[in-house]
Prior knowledge:
alpha/beta; 7-stranded mixed sheet
Amino acid sequence: MRFEFVSESREQTKAFGALLSKFAFPGEVILLEGDLGAGKTTFAGGFAKGLGIEEEVISPTFNIMKCYFNGRIPMFHIDAYRLENQNIELGLEEFIEGDGVSLIEWPVFIKPLIPDNPLHITIHNLGDDRRQFIIEGEGEQYAPLFVELER
């Protein structure tokens, strides 16, 4: 399944993240791909708000992972950018396989930890605050999401 969407503003990007969070489930893994500044953390902030998380979502680049527990389900925001060519035995798989939803930026750097059938979200910067989102996922677990997106 595949869906494309163009956001015209940061607010619309956050609202799109909030919409997708309505379909989040425990154990879900969402791969966020895009260049630096593409809007991955902005999207993650909207996703968190949709889960009912009140905390401000900031990029976990220097921490590698930020955990948010005060929502409908926990959210684990992982930025693997700094793990390129590094030992990835940090215990991340316990969170990725855990009871929350994992949003993973730069997943290529922790590929062995990624389970089968994640939801892929690719974000392209179209200039100013415009972003193109390409959402791809296989499996029945994503059917309700894609039905809603096609409306």
